[in-house]
Every structure is written in structure tokens, then in C-alpha cells.
């Protein structure tokens, strides 16, 4: 189709939302130019290369493969045209920091009980996982089947009618068909309430809720509808894409170029001037960009507060100050001599009570004293990301956005994390590190212009989901649109791909 033939579009930012929007608009005939602040595409899915090590700087879980398949199918392609996938087994491993609440003598395949803490493997084998659940709580295995059946229904109906179909106004929710679609779905209440209806043991609750980290929320504030993430985890599987998530971004950028998109990296945008049919996007690059339409995949608050004049903003500073933001992160990218057994490709280390950690993110911001964190070891799967005889590892601790991350604080917290890894997984890294880079609140703010240094954007709280997120269309400036994690459907790489499609649909509708 060529509905946008003769129209020019400037896309600000080459994250997954911007890449997706650019593909759809170019496919519709538009002349699309993507201007990106940093030296590579992918947004937070950048790659860091140091001395033979290649690190995914941001997202590292390839989830919801159906979303990627649908995206590429819209252009008569397949993901395999751009990258290969390997399903991980185990999907991930969990180290619980102590044995609080354990039922002695109930070991099961994939459950290692020691004096130091429990180690659980979540694998593609449903029966194995059910045995683990029964080891903690009699009958929990069968309840897992019930839980995942509800999660599957939420996913299939929710994706088609509540995720791919945007409903930005109250009247959009008065559609009588919606009541039929929503019948039986878990729409109300929090994830904490929903999970407690199925499982009593706190460790089982944590296993069902860890995916909330991908949504930037806490169990007591994230809507129960997001139990659909358990269908993603347990039923659809966890994969590793060739080249990591930055390789996926490169693949979509290759598709965009095939469709005629022009990329300009190292072009930070400084101002947006004009109106539909007469925009000028000022950059620090060699030339500015003239366009009929502008789509921003940059941080929403940055776009409004820094790139637009006051009279063209939808929200004032008080609005952005009042929002609840997803966590930032303290990241250590580590090149390590030797292997790092017993870590898996994806490993979670969880305290017995993680309410305190969530409280130190959302309620009383502070550096977590007993952190929950994630370890990624892609060299377990990919020989190309580390030199021979070495391991590629990064540690990610969710922390509150806006924290003061001075060099002294970072030094102290780095030692705390390394000590915690050694104590709770048995992997002592202290004297084996040959490459080390750190990334935290200040770098998220500087590299990505992210508000308060959030790593993800707006959290998925009950009051910041669906029509309560900022719109794709600017209500203050005709011809300006937004895409990415601040808009619907929200946080995460698959959601940003869908956001790009929704934004492109709005551009086409208005054209």
C-alpha cells in the first residue's frame, strides 16, 4: 500500500518502538528518516563491546515469540530471515537466599535444597515444574495447571482485544462486545491478590511474580491481568536470539533499510519546530530534518519538556513529577576468567522476603540492603560473546529511579553485589574480573534522556495502564506522535513493537 506516498516522516529515536513505527510507515509509502542520539540503533537494547566481550546493555530476555513472528509476517518475512533462536533449558534458575518456609525432605527434579538456600530450575518440562511446586506445597502442581490455564486465556483474549487494539478513551471501553471478550478474564485486583488465590508458599508466589520486573511494577500495584506473563514464561518459552537482543534490533533495522528507511546515528535532537506539513527537527548532527510528520520514540517526558515549546506540551512538570516510574538499575558488565558454574544463562537471586526491596524502590527510595537481582551469562549459550576460557556476565539490581549514584556509592554497592553473589550462588568473582563496566541511574539519564534515570519508563500500576498512559497522538501539536514504552501497550520489547504498529495506524488514519 502507498497511503503515505509523498509524505515525509521523522522518527526520533531508534529503540524498538521507533524501529517498528519506521517499518510500518515506510511500508505505507512514507519517506522515513530515523534520527538517533547514540552511535547505534536499538535504544536500551544497545551492545557494549570491550576486549573481546560483547554485552547486551539492556533487555536480554527474548519473550513472546509470537509477537515477533506477527511483526515480521506483516512484511512477508520471518524472524529467521534476520536471526536464529535457541530455546533455553532451563528457562532460568532461581537461588533463594535462605530456606525460610521450606518443607524438609520434599526434594524434586529441578529443586536443590542445601543449608545455604534452595535452588530451583524452571524448565520447558511442565511435569518437572509441577513436582517442584508440590515439593513446596502439596497440591500446588495441579493448581499451577489451573493458574496457567487462566493465564493462557488472559493472554489470548487480552492480546487480541486489549493489547493490539488500542482503547485510548473512556467511550472505547463502552463497546458491548468488550463485555463478551472480557468474560472470565482476570481484570480487577492486584497480582499479589491473584497469586495468593492459588499459592500460599512465599517462594511459589515469587516464582509467579518475578516477571513483574519486566513491567516495572510491584505485586501489590500491578493489575492481575498481567498474570498473562506466566503464559509467556511457562508455555511460550524463553529463547536466546543470535547476537543477543541487540542482534534483534539490528535485524529490524536491516528490514527497515530494505523498506527504504534512512538512519542517522550520532544525531541528538535538540528541538522540534513547526506543525503538520512543516516540521523541522533540529539536531546536533550535520543537518536538521524536515518532515510532514514527527514520531518520537525518545523518552516522553524529555520530548515534551525539552524538545517542545511550552505552548505545544500536553503535560506540565507537575504531571511528570506525580507519575510512578519503573525502577532504574545498577548494572555490572563483567568479563570473567573461567566458567561461572552453577549459574544458568538466566539466573535470579531472591531474598525470602522481597517486599522490603520493592519498598526501597517504590515507597521509601534507597539502595536495597538485601537486594533481589538478575544475572545473565550469555556465554553459556553463545561462544561469540566472550574470548576462549572466559565468561560474559552482567548483574542487574533493580533500584529506585532518581537515586544519588555517586562514585563512592557505586564502589560500595559493587562490593555488596559481588559479596552477595559469592555468598548465595557460590560463584566468587572478585579475583577473576578482567573487564568491568558500570551503568546506573546517571547513565540511564545521560545516554537515554530517561526521566529520573528510569530504566523502563512508566510503571504498570493500576492507574498507569491502558487509557491512563500518555497517548500516541499529541493533543497539543497536530502531526506529532509518540511511540515506545511510555505509551500503550507499555513496557517491554514486544510491547514496544506493538506500540509502533499502533502509532503507525494513527498516522495512517489521520492521513
UniProtKB/TrEMBL annotation:
Record InterPro entries: Amino_oxidase, Carotenoid/retinoid_OxRdtase, FAD/NAD-bd_sf
Oxidoreductase found in the keyword field: yes
GO biological process annotation, one example: carotenoid biosynthetic process
Positions of the Amine oxidase domain: 17-508
EC number: 1.3.99.37
Signal peptide positions (record): none
TM region positions: none
Keyword Cytoplasm attached: no
Pfam family for this entry, one: Amino_oxidase
Molecular function, one GO term: oxidoreductase activity
Pathway: Carotenoid biosynthesis
Superkingdom classification of source: Archaea
UniProt enzyme class: oxidoreductase
Record key words, sorted: Carotenoid biosynthesis, Oxidoreductase
PANTHER family: PHYTOENE DESATURASE
Protein name (record): Carotenoid 3,4-desaturase
Organism encoding this protein: Halobacterium hubeiense
Lineage summary: Archaea, Methanobacteriati, Methanobacteriota, Stenosarchaea group, Halobacteria
